[in-house]
Amino acid sequence: MFGKLLAIVVVLAVMALALLVERQRRTETMLEISRTHSRILEQERSIARLRAEVARRIRPGDVRVALRTVAGEWVPLPNRLDRPTAPTSPRLAADRPDATVPASTPATEFGG
What pLDDT, in 10s, does the model give residues 12-71? Predict the structure, then answer.
């Protein structure tokens, strides 16, 4: 009888310790997520500061002059980050003139 009671107490103690270990792991994971989030926010702030510094130092005329000195043809980026709205509304890929997908199975295409 005493042996069974001792075994039950030992099993319950092991289960309690396992739960405490799992709780500690979860707490450490949440802390790591929080630290990672803070690092990401700091890097985003740093990027914003660097972009502002570049914008302050560079003028469009200077960029045009520099592009003329570099060999090759340069084209503007199609979807700029500073554009307030999407370039076009979503449309079906089957509506394109060069669509190879049969009209019976339309696929959705987002963007331009």
Answer: 999 999 999 999 999 999 999 999 999 999 999 999 999 999 888 988 888 888 888 887
Distance CA 93, CA 86 (A): 17
> Can you tell me whether residue 64 is helix, strand or coil?
helix
pTM of the model: 0.48
43 φ, ψ (degrees, to nearest 5) = -65, -40
- With b for 16 or more beta-carbon neighbours within 10 A and e for fewer, the 40-53 pattern comes to eeeeeeeeeeeeee
The residue length of the chain stands at 112
